[in-house]
Amino acid sequence: MKHSLRFRLLLFVLTSFIIGWLTISGFTWWRATAEADALFDEQLFQLATLLAVVTSHEAEEQDLDEFAEDLQINGYSDPPVFQVWSSDGRLLVHGPNAPRKPLSLNLETGYSNVVMRGHQWRVYTRYTSDKQHRIQVAQESASREVRMLGFVVNILSPLLLALPMIGILWWVVVRALNPLDRLVHQIGSRSATNLEAIDTTIAPAEAKVLVDAINDLFQKLQSSIDRYSRFTADASHELRTPLAGSVIQIHAALASSDKIERNHSLNQALKGLSKLHRLVEQLLVFSRMEPEVAMLEFAPLDLKELSVEVVSDCAPGYLERDVTLELEAPHPVKLMGNWELLAIALRNLLDNAVRVTPAGGVIKVSLLADDDFVSLAVIDAGPGISDQNKALVFGRFHRLLGTTGQGSGLGLSIVHSAVRLHGGTVILEDGEKGKGLQVVIKIPIRRSYPSQVVKL
């Protein structure tokens, strides 16, 4: 189950706060109890020291009976439990709650824990300076713990005031995420056709990168939709004309009783359907090159071998038009590429060239390479293209005025897309001696591609 950003942020903040609060409270409790324990031990030490001083001065006078009352008057709220023993083991004096047996069997100077009357007691033992008397004072552990608890609670009480901060943190997190809620609402309330840019002023700085990325995606989607809309409109127009003409010719053939007129109508219909067939094929080829990221398999290939194969396939058909194909490729040219796309590009260049080359003309295909680039040129013997039209011929369905044949207007656009997928460029130049057109495909010789995903 995926939780919302608000839930995860609240969980992180509150968990961190609670862990920090418990850590501080635990450390404070430990330090406070340790200091309180040391403080109570210090009280025992001071009480024993006071008894030792009094005993040294007044033991001879047996004036220790009123010592407990003096201690209570001087701030000791609990009746003191103490004993004063002589060096020969006689109990000289003791507090009102002290037993007649030694408080601790440990006769060394220092602290000890004993069980007396079924309870734990803390005992401190020391001697007077003349070593003639042993002093033992005691505190009940339960009494110490009750007083210690009050002491620790007083220290921890300021930390309890931090607990309401949980509610404040909750409110702060919810408040801080309100701009994201407005952003989500703005995007969620859009229609499927609304690809306008999101208002970045409502987004927090941390989300601005995401909003900019979404706006960039919207822009690409809008451009893609516009491009496909134009493509669909142009394709519909181009398909409608030969289809409608063929239908008319077929109706004319069916209505005609004259064999010559019927055959003429059927031939015209066949030409229209042939043009339609070629247009559909090129539309299918072009559609594979349209995505902004094309999944293509690149492999090592020999461009000379590819050129020989394409020229060999096209040459017989061109001979029927009295057009000669010449290939100049003295050496093998190795590069990484997609065989099918490059073959389609070369075949389209040859088809364009044969339409403008008059009977008896020659179409030359030349292949050159250096360490960095390979250049494949197709030179026709046609009328050429003006500089003004050279910038337009790569557009879809663009046909030059005065050209003949069954061209779809997609040939050079397909060539341009195929070459661009290989990281190359298409250059239009005047042919030999300023006659005809020379189309040069220039592709970098790459030994490998980092992946099979090639961005347009």
In words, what does this structure look like?
The chain is of the alpha+beta class. The protein has 3 domains: 5-160, Beta-Lactamase (2-Layer Sandwich), CATH 3.30.450.20; 200-288; 294-455, Heat Shock Protein 90. Helix content is 52%, strand content 18%. The chain has helices at residues 5-58, 67-73, 141-160, 165-176, 178-188, 205-255, 259-288, 303-320, 339-356, 387-390, 411-421, and strands at 81-86, 91-94, 110-116, 119-127, 133-140, 293-295, 299-302, 324-328, 334-337, 362-369, 373-379, 425-430, 437-444, 453-455. The strands form 4 sheets. Strands 2-1-5-4-3 form a 5-stranded antiparallel β-sheet. A hairpin with a 2-residue loop joins β3 (110-116) and β4 (119-127). The two termini are 38 Å apart. Mean pLDDT is 77; it is low at 400-408 and 447-456.
Order of helices and strands: HHEEEEEHHHHHEEHEEHEEHHEEE
Which class of secondary structure composition applies to the elements? alpha+beta
Give the total of beta strands. Answer: 14
- The residue fraction in helices comes out at 40-55%
Number of domains: 3
Spatial strand arrangement across the major sheet? 2-1-5-4-3
Q: Which CATH class of the largest domain applies here?
A: Alpha Beta
Mean pLDDT: 77
CATH fold-level topology of the largest domain: Heat Shock Protein 90
CATH superfamily of the largest domain: Histidine kinase-like ATPase, C-terminal domain
Kindly, what is the distance between the CA atoms of the first and last residues, rounded to a whole number of angstroms? 38 Å
